[in-house]
Design goal:
Residues 66-354 form the PRISE-like Rossmann-fold domain. This protein is of the alpha/beta class and 354 residues long. The chain has helices at 13-24, 53-60, 79-96, 113-116, 144-159, 182-196, 206-210, 218-230, 249-259, 274-278, 282-292, 299-302, 305-312, 323-328, 336-349; strands spanning 4-8, 28-33, 44-47, 67-70, 105-109, 162-168, 171-172, 212-213, 216-217, 237-241, 247-248.
């Protein structure tokens, strides 16, 4: 039967890639966002603020999707505020839908902070035992991922639809203006190093430099979300999702440098702050953008160094187990080097980097 999707956060990193996957599968896709000007013509725009129930009800009036996909979040100053705001976003959508009882499936994208803790207590305390597995219980304390899950579970029980939760590691893929985008941030950093002679220093911790780790290609995540939403095995389950390979930054860093035609600086032996290194470079990027005819001259729109610092600064090993997903029937795989290379090539083709 025809499938109709409502993607919450359709302009973001996950939402854009998920929309591409669903459209390729023949779905009708409605994309909800506060600003919909950047949505392609293939996506039906739904302009609304998920934290404004009145505008949400008006925007969703007459819309009866078979599937809802939550791919966005909002950041507040404390985790308590994060819990309130992000739980409200989900709850408001279910309340605003004219016929939530007609939903077949709802998907929620969270992440490894399910195992590592929220930003204000990130990777602190006793380190979790790796690899991260879905069977691990919730951590003590507030975590907006848990608050989101509880809203999802409650709505599914009340309205009778299936659900799935997807927990990616750092997502690598194309999107602009989103809060967490390490791949694009590293591309911007490398471009600035090439243009200015600034050393291309790995900004992360010694553990992240030398230990095994993994990432999630946005296309891999989209594939798993589609699989779980259409497969009986994906009903009412939470799944980790990474590429399926592992790597060390100590090896990959020089390969990224070579892609941009620069030398990787020696690792200094301790974490640096990429946010500090890029501070004050707004004018440099604006000049570079003008000189090369780039599409975006605002450094804050193309780079999120605070998030890259949080990811690469972790003092613990981060390896994700995919056994459950594979056992349930999802066998997708992506080569991480190809993930980065594809992203860098697309950023250059779209005139985001020189």
């Amino acid at each position: 039967m025809p499938q109709t999707a409502l993607i919450i956060g359709a302009t973001g990193l996950v939402g854009q890639n998920l929309a591409n996957r669903l459209l390729a599968e023949g779905w009708t896709v409605h994309g909800l966002a506060r600003r919909v000007e950047s949505l392609p013509d293939t996506i039906l725009p739904v302009q609304a603020d998920t934290l404004d129930p009145a505008s949400l009800r008006e925007a969703l009036a007459g819309l009866t999707p078979s599937h809802v996909f939550f791919t966005t979040w909002t950041r507040r100053s404390t985790e308590r505020e994060n819990c309130i705001a992000n739980a409200a976003m989900l709850a408001n959508v279910f309340e605003a839908l004219p016929h939530p009882e007609k939903l077949v499936h709802a998907s929620l994208v969270t992440g490894l902070k399910h195992y590592l803790g929220p930003f204000d207590a990130y990777a602190k305390g006793a380190p979790p035992v790796t690899p991260f597995r879905e069977s691990m219980g919730r951590l003590d304390g507030e975590n907006f991922y848990y608050a989101q899950e509880d809203v999802l579970f409650d709505a599914a029980a009340r309205h009778g639809f299936a659900w799935s939760v997807h927990r990616p590691h750092t997502i690598i893929g194309f999107a602009l203006g989103n809060l967490m985008n390490m791949g694009t941030t590293l591309a911007v950093y490398a471009s600035l190093c090439r243009e200015t002679g600034m050393p291309f220093v790995f900004p992360g911790s010694p553990v992240q430099w030398s230990a095994l780790t993994d990432v999630t290609d946005a296309r891999q995540l989209a594939s798993q979300i589609h699989w779980a939403a259409t497969s009986p095995a994906g009903r009412n389950e939470a799944f980790n999702i990474v590429n399926g390979d592992v790597f060390r930054w100590s090896t990959l860093w020089s390969e990224i440098a070579a892609w941009f035609g620069i030398e990787a600086a020696p690792y200094p032996g301790q974490a640096s702050s990429l946010e500090a290194m890029l501070a004050g470079k707004e004018g440099v990027w604006a000049e570079l953008a003008q000189r090369h005819g780039l599409a975006e001259s605002d450094l804050g729109r193309v780079a999120s160094p605070w998030h890259t610092d949080a990811d690469l600064g972790r003092p613990i090993e981060c390896v994700t187990d995919m056994s459950k997903s594979r056992a349930f029937g999802f066998t997708g795989y992506r080569d991480t080097r190809v993930s980065f290379g594809d992203l860098f090539s697309l950023l250059r083709a779209r005139k985001i980097i020189p």
